[in-house]
Backbone:
């Protein structure tokens, strides 16, 4: 399990990133969050399957 501070840093980074992207891309924040969630979920699933198959 990652430490709580690491999770907090990641969350703050994601919020700042989405805010900056929404300023530049002029996209709605919802669309950006949807893209980030898609990428994050697929990456997390890939990580899970890797860790399960390596055992």
Residues:
């Amino acid at each position: 399990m990652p430490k709580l501070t690491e999770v907090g840093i990641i969350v703050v980074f994601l919020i700042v990133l989405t805010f900056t992207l929404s300023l530049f891309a002029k996209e709605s924040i919802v669309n950006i969050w949807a893209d980030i969630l898609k990428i994050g979920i697929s990456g997390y699933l890939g990580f899970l399957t890797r860790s399960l198959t390596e055992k």
Q: What stands out?
A: Helices lie at 4-25, 29-53. The longest helix spans residues 29-53.
